Amino acid sequence: MLEASNNNELPVIPGKRYFTIGEVSELCGVKPHVLRYWEQEFTQLKPVKRRGNRRYYQRHDVVLIREIRSLLYEQGFTIGGARQRLDNGEQPESKNNKKQIINELLSELEEIHALLA
114 pairs with which residues across the strands? Predict the structure, then answer.
């Protein structure tokens, strides 16, 4: 399990459309039961539910979970404080997070370019 201060060391989010709860758990460094709990606490977090009530998270859900994780584990917010911060539209994106997203987009574009070449 990752330490709370290692949010910048989380793995790169792959270029998939949907992620299972197990995959999101690994990508975000939190256990599946925590993700299910956060769904109840944060109204913005609504994974798609399919057959058998299975959860499928999209990329924006994974980014949101990482932001929630950062607020709770790194910045020391309570659940209520983090909820309020997200409700106000003040979703903090650190420079490292923005760099990571840009790097992911660049690698995806390079993959597409290689396929077309």
Answer: none
Computed on alpha carbons and rounded to an integer, the radius of gyration of the chain in Å comes to: 15
Locate all alpha helices (DSSP H) within the chain, ordered by sequence. 21-28, 32-41, 59-69, 79-87, 95-116
CATH 3.40.50.720 fits 13-92, yes or no: no
CB 15 within 8 A of CB 104: yes
Is pLDDT larger for residue 109 or for residue 95?
109
pLDDT in tens, 90-103: 545 555 677 778 88
The ranges assigned to domains in the chain are 13-92
Residue 64: which of 88, 40, 84, 38 has the closest Cα? 38
Shortest CA distance to 68 belongs to which of 109, 95, 97? 97
pTM above 0.90, yes or no: no
Position 2 scores a pLDDT of: 40
Output the pLDDT for position 20: 94
Cα separation, 103 vs 112, whole angstroms: 14
